[in-house]
Amino acid sequence: MENSFDYASLNVPTPCFLIDRALLRRNMRTLKIVQERTGAEILLALKAFATWGVFDEMKGSIAGATASSIYEARLAKECDMGQVHVYSPAYTAEEMTEAVKLADHVVFNSFKQWETFRSVIEGSGRNISPGLRINPEYSEVHAEIYNPCTIRSRFGVRQVLFDGKSMDGIEGLHFHTMCQQGPDVLERTLENVEKYFGKYFSGLKWINFGGGHHITREGYDVDWLCEIIDGFKQRTGLHVYLEPGEAHVMNTGFMVTKVLDILENPHSSDILIVDSSASAHMPDILEMPYTPELKGASIISDTSMDMPLDEFENKYIVGGKTCLSGDIIGEYGFDKDISVGDKLVFCDMSQYTLVKNTMFNGIQLPAIASCDSEKPGGDVKIIREFGYEDFKGRLS
C-alpha cells in the first residue's frame, strides 16, 4: 500500500520498531465496518501483536482479544480490551485456575481437556462460554510450518473423534485453518466445516472462524467477506467471531535501522551491515522465508543469495549484525548510493516481529515507538527502550 511519509526523518533511536497510529486507525475503520455490516465480532489475536502501548487506538473498533496463554489473557484483561477469549493446545491445572478469572470464552483442544476442566469452568462463578476447536482437515496453507491441518497437526478435534462424544455443555466451535488469505479460501473452508460438523451446530451459540483473514490488505474483497458471514448466519443461526492478527496491524509498522558498515564483495553486491537482525528481530524473514519491502528500494532477489541481480546501478545485500551466517534481510536495488550512517526503513513490521524478537547474541532489542503520519512532525512517542538489564534478567 503506497505510503510516501518519510519515516527515516523522524527522531527515533535505531534499531526501532515504529508504529504509525494513523495507519492503525485506518485498519480499525475497515474492521469496524465489517462488524457493523454483519453483526460478527472481531478479536485481536495477541499472538500476532501485543504492543499494548497503542491499544488505545484499537479500542472501540474491535470486540476484544484472543489469547494463546495466560500471560496474553492477563494483558488483555489489564488493558481493558473487551472480551477475552482463550485457546491453548493444552492447559495445566494451574493455568485453568487463572484462565477462569480472566476469560469470557475458553476453547479446548480435545474432549479430554474439556472433561478434565469442565468442573472448573462451571464452578468459577463467572459466565464463561466453553468451546471446542475442530480440525476440518482442509487448508490451503502451503507452508507446512503454518498449516494447521497436516496429518501431524496438534490442533483441533477431527470429525471422526466426535463419534460417541457428548456435546453437553459446549456452546461453540472454533477453527483456524487460514494464513494471509482471502474470502475465497474462507468460503471453501466453510463448505468443509459445514459438511463435517454442521450436524453438531444444533444447540450451539457461536462459531469462531479463527484468524488468517487478510481483511485490511489492499484489494481484499470486504463485500464478499460480509456476504459469506451473513449467509452463514442465516443458514445456522450462530453468532460469528473472527480473530485475525495481521489484519489489525498490516502495513502499520516499520523497522528503522542504521547502516553500520559496507563490506566489499567481489562475487556479488556489496553488503550493508545494519544495527538490526533478521534472525533476532524479524524472524519470519527466515522462517517463511520472504524479503520485506524497503522504502526507497526495490527487491531484486530473495534471501537465498543465489539469484542474479538485475540492472540496478546501486545494488546491496542487507545483512544483520548477529553471528548467524544466514542473517540476511534481502537484496535490494536503490535509487541512490548508500553510505554508513544512512537510515533504512523496512515495511510491514508490526505483526509477528515485536512478539517474536529475541536477544540472540546479546543483540540490543529494538526500541518501540509510535508516530502519527497525519500530524505535523509525525508526533513521535517513544514507548520503550531496552538495555543490558533486560538481557541479563531473562537468563538468570
3D architecture notes:
The chain is 25% helix and 23% strand. It has 396 residues and is of the alpha/beta class. The strands form two sheets. Strands 1, 11, 12, 13, 14, 15, 16, 17 and 18 form a nine-stranded mixed beta sheet that branches.
**Total strand count, please?**
18
Order of helices and strands: EHEEHEHEHEEEHEHEHEEHHEEEEEEH
Note the total helix count: 10
The chain-level mean pLDDT equals 95
Described by strand count, sense and barrel closure, the largest sheet is:
9 strands, mixed
Query: End-to-end span in angstroms?
Result: 43 Å
- Global morphology: elongated
Topology:
Elements: E1 16-20, H1 21-38, E2 41-45, E3 64-67, H2 70-78, E4 83-87, H3 93-102, E5 105-108, H4 111-122, E6 129-135, E7 157-158, E8 172-174, H5 183-197, E9 206-208, H6 222-236, E10 239-242, H7 246-249, E11 253-263, E12 270-274, H8 278-281, H9 284-287, E13 297-301, E14 314-319, E15 328-334, E16 343-347, E17 367-371, E18 381-384, H10 388-395
Parallel strand pairs: 1-17, 2-3, 2-10, 3-4, 4-5, 5-6, 6-7, 6-8, 8-9, 9-10, 12-14
Antiparallel strand pairs: 1-11, 11-12, 11-16, 13-15, 14-15, 17-18
Helix pairs in contact: 2-3, 5-6
